[in-house]
Specification:
Layout lengths: L1 H47 L9 H18 L15 H25 L6 H37 L10
Length: 168
């Protein structure tokens, strides 16, 4: 009787481990989304200090926070392509790296400005805002494209193989 129940117990344990792993991944992604939202809050607060009417609106602040949360959730952990040995530069990986750099740079400059009570010149406010929005959009796009590429590769692997040699 033990021989029959042992594979069932292993299957149950494997499912439980998979569920814990998925829960940990969701927890990690949620933490990254919160970090992105926090960084977006800092950028919005810094830009609102500049007394530009658009930057002080609730819509702008909410958009900044949402772009940070979505961008960090989707774009930091981008799935790798199935076939890596092509010798090409992976545009998704490059876009993710550039996006996180720009978003983190905007957040860093904003935190500095808030902590030391510095208001950058008006032109720099637009530069910081552009870094943030550009980085967030790059992150979200990289994450979506990387996941779509992974889904397409999975769909291709389920199709029947059509090999011309089999017809002979």
């Amino acid at each position: 009787m033990r021989i029959v129940t042992r594979p069932k117990q292993r299957a149950v344990i494997a499912r439980e481990l998979m569920m814990v792993s998925r829960a940990a991944h969701v927890l990690q992604r949620t933490g990254l989304a919160m970090a992105g939202a926090m960084a977006g809050t800092f950028v919005a607060a810094q830009l609102a200090k500049g007394h530009v009417a658009v930057f002080g609106t609730l819509g702008f602040i909410a958009t900044t926070i949402v772009i940070g949360a979505v961008g960090f959730y989707l774009g930091i952990d981008v799935p790798k392509p199935v076939m890596r040995g092509t010798g090409r530069i992976d545009a998704v990986e490059l876009m993710s790296a550039g996006g996180i750099f720009l978003a983190a740079l905007a957040a860093l400059v904003s935190v500095y400005g808030i902590v030391f009570d510095e208001i950058p010149p008006r032109a720099w406010e637009f530069v910081i805002g552009t870094w943030w929005f550009g980085g967030g959009i790059m992150l979200a796009t990289a994450g979506l494209v990387g996941r779509q590429r992974l889904a397409n590769a999975a769909a291709m692997s389920t199709r029947p193989i059509r090999d011309q040699r089999l017809r002979r």
